[in-house]
Amino acid sequence: MAVNTKAYQEINGELQSKQVTLVAVSKTKPVAEIQELYELGQRDFGENYVQELAEKQLVLPNDIRWHFIGHLQSNKVKYIAPYVHLIHGVDSYKLLLEIDKQARKFDRVIHCLLQIHVAQEETKFGFNELELMEAMDAIHKYKLLNELKNVEVSGLMGMASFTEDKEQVRKEFKYLKLLFDHCASLPWNTGFNTLSMGMSSDYQIAIEEGSTLVRVGSLLFGSRQQ
């Protein structure tokens, strides 16, 4: 199989020692490879596509914590609402309200992360700083009205620029951590404890800058080095 067992054990051991959660990005990977990582002890898996996630969760162990890490359309929320553990890419009020609506149907609370646009690429989704502050204010007002009871905003997620310039990546992660710390310090904002930043190419920088969760795929599922 294509799972790189040695890399998984090394990365997982490193992250556990730093109390950072490893999400294994399993998009497009076959069920057999996910099962192999599961048997090594991995429980958090990330998927980008709703249909693929729906199909996989039907046949894989029910104690897997499924993370949705792709761009989620409001009309697709209902398909993952019964079982999704954490939605990483909430980038609009509309989506947050739809997640709350669908979670209510299943009498559960869905945890979410607000996606922040910190990269230089315009193709990335997410709130800018001003929009984030407006979103936090709106969430507070909803909570005061006893609304949004079925969604919990647990933190922030962001993706750095795809570049060889490590200092640019570090700068973007530092900025995201500053925004996270500000939001976490708001007196009403309890349970705001997850900062999802860092992927295969930059997770070590992300950890140095305060990430609590990294999303790693190619290092785990890539071909073994002989």
TrEMBL record:
PANTHER family: PROLINE SYNTHETASE CO-TRANSCRIBED BACTERIAL HOMOLOG PROTEIN, PYRIDOXAL PHOSPHATE HOMEOSTASIS PROTEIN. The keyword Lyase does not apply. Pyridoxal 5'-phosphate (PLP)-binding protein, which is involved in PLP homeostasis. Keywords: Pyridoxal phosphate. It comes from Niastella vici. InterPro entries: Ala_racemase_N (IPR001608), PLP-binding_barrel (IPR029066), PyrdxlP_homeostasis (IPR011078). Pfam families: Ala_racemase_N. Belongs to the pyridoxal phosphate-binding protein YggS/PROSC family. GO terms for molecular function: pyridoxal phosphate binding. It comes from the Bacteria. The modification N6-(pyridoxal phosphate)lysine is found at K27. Residues 12-224 form the Alanine racemase N-terminal domain. This is Pyridoxal phosphate homeostasis protein. HAMAP family: PLP_homeostasis. Its cofactor is pyridoxal 5'-phosphate.
